[in-house]
Each structure stands twice: as structure tokens, then as C-alpha cells.
Amino acid sequence: MAFVIATTNMKGGVGKTTLTVNLAASLARNQGKRVLIVDLDTQISATLSLMPPGEFAKLRNDKRTLRYLVHQAIARNPDLPNLTRDSIKSYICNVPGLSLMLGDIEIYDEYLVSEMLHKRSMQQGRAEQFEQVWNEFEKNLIRNILEPISPDYDIIILDCAPGYNLITRSALLASDYYLIPARPEPLSLIGIQLLERRIHRLREAHREDSSVKVDLLGIAFSLSGNLLTGRYYNQVMKRLNDDFSEAKLFKTRIPMDVNVSKAVDSYTPVVLSNPGCSGGKAFQQLSQEFLQKLTTSARVNEPPSRFAISNLE
């Protein structure tokens, strides 16, 4: 079974998608892992970082995006496992082991979901327990999509939207760990604090379910070139060291590098298009540190049958 990692932050503009696609590409190319990227952000930045818009439009017309998988999951289609496999685009950027589950600019209609769940609770005679019905749906939505394909991968990375919507909550509940991409600046720190509070409430809502973990793997930093925010670097890092253990802060910092931005124009992560630049080298180093943290955490938190240490190292 794959380890499922959600990349998330309440704040946008922290390099979340750039980290996701480069981490995944490096894990596949340099570490030999079978990696699936799942684009859960309606901005579809991960998808459009890995394929031209024309190719995406064709696949969307063929109903091979998350919009249709979420719809089938809500409808409880028994053929969902086959539909999920058919939707996955493999050999992304011609890298064996790197696959993508395409995002969509429209993933779900929250009003229709609420209406459907209310109807479901009424049919079950549980109108007074709507919250419980909602929690069950929230827990299982993304999980039901991923579970049939989990044995096909070593690592599944969920690129979540900024904020805290239904899909992000469901992604966290389906994950073994979450990874917070951040910038060492005050507003990013606020985003981390808000996220931690909400995840605490999410754990509380599902505290009686032993399958829910929602553990922090770590916080990974992309450096900012803004002199104003740079003044606060030491202050922010001290606060994070006070709030989190050293083990939860990635030592690798992703530097400012124009090559990282240029790589998006070629629909190829910089670790593949220009691995020798400073950004490419940093992401490769980050992938090594990521595996070290995952291995260490798995030793502590996972039953021996859950993973083979040789598969991660």
C-alpha cells in the first residue's frame, strides 16, 4: 500500500504546487519510486505544470479528470476502481513511475453534496445525526478513490487547494501524513497556525476512528526574495522552532531560482528540465530528506506489515 501525503497550507503563494511536482518527479526519477500526483486544486496548477492545456482539454472531454471520479464516488458507482485506473495518466514527462490524476476547474458542487447527504440521512432515519453522516462522507470521499489503486504506488502525493474546503479535509483524512510547504515569513506562519488549529478540530471530529491519522511529516521552506519579509526570517524561524520539534522542519531550503519558473513553460519540473541548477539540486536533496523523514516516522508509527524498510531507503 502506498504512503499517502497531502501537501497543504491555508495560505496560497507558498510554492505548494512547485514543491509537489518537483518532489514527486525527483522521487520517481532519482529514487526509483512509483509516485502518483493527485491534483485536488481547482486552479489545476499541478496538472498544467505537467502537460499542455490542449492535452488537458482533450482528457477532460474524455471525462478523465477528478471531477468525474468525485461524481462517481458520490454516486457510489461499484465500477469506481476501474474508472480511477482509466483516468490516471502514466509516464508523465516520459518518466517511468511518475503518474498524474488530473485536476479539474470544477470538482464538486457543495450545495448538491449537502442536499444529497441530507436526503441520505433522512432515508437512513438519521436526520438528527446529519453531522455524523457528513463526517463519514468526508472521511471516505477521497479515500474510496485512492484505496483501489494504492497497491500500484509507493507514494501518493495530494496537491491540496489553499484554504480548507471539503476536498482538502477529505484528502487529509485519507492521508498518512501531511506536508506543509511554506515561506519563512510572517503571513506564511499565520497560515501554518490556522492550518494546525483546523487539523486539530478535524482529528477531534474523527477521534473515535482509528484509521484516521493526520500526522505532520514536516514543514518545507521555499525562500523569498522580498527584502521586507526577509527581515523577519530569524524571528519566524525561531517561532517555528518553538512551536515544532526540529525533526518537523526540513533542513533543505529551496532557493530562489528563475529556472524553476521557466520550467513551467516547458510543462516539465525543473528537476527534469534543468537538474543541475540550484533549484533542481535543492529539490533532489529535499526528496532524499523526505524519504528519510518518512522512513523514520514509519518506523515509529506504522505496524511492521505496513511497509518494508527496503522499499523506502
Report, as a whole number of angstroms, the end-to-end distance: 16 Å
Trace the largest sheet across and list its strands.
3-2-4-1-5-6-7
**Sheet with the most strands, sense and barrel status:** 7 strands, parallel
3D shape: globular
Q: What's the SSE pattern?
A: EHEHHHHEHHEHEHEHHEHHHH
What is the number of E strands? 7
Q: So how many helices?
A: 15
Q: Give average pLDDT, whole number.
A: 88
State the helicity in percent bands: 40-55%
**Percentage of residues in DSSP E strands:** 5-15%
Rg for CA atoms: 19 Å
Given as residue ranges, the uncertain stretches (5+ residues, pLDDT < 50) are none
By helix and strand content, what is the structural category? alpha/beta
What features would you describe in this structure?
- With 313 residues, this protein is of the alpha/beta class.
- The chain contains 15 helices and seven strands.
- It has a seven-stranded parallel beta sheet, sandwiched between helices.
- Helix 1 crosses helix 14 (278-301) and helix 7 packs across helix 8.
- The longest helix is centred in the last third of the chain and has 24 residues, at 278-301.
- The radius of gyration is 19 Å and the shape is globular.
- 41% of the residues are buried.
Helix and strand layout, with pairings?
Elements: E1 3-7, H1 16-29, E2 35-39, H2 45-48, H3 53-61, H4 66-74, H5 80-87, E3 98-101, H6 110-123, H7 130-146, E4 155-159, H8 166-174, E5 177-182, H9 186-205, E6 215-222, H10 227-230, H11 233-243, E7 249-254, H12 258-265, H13 270-273, H14 278-301, H15 309-312
Parallel strand pairs: 1-4, 1-5, 2-3, 2-4, 5-6, 6-7
Helix pairs in contact: 1-14, 4-5, 4-7, 6-7, 7-8
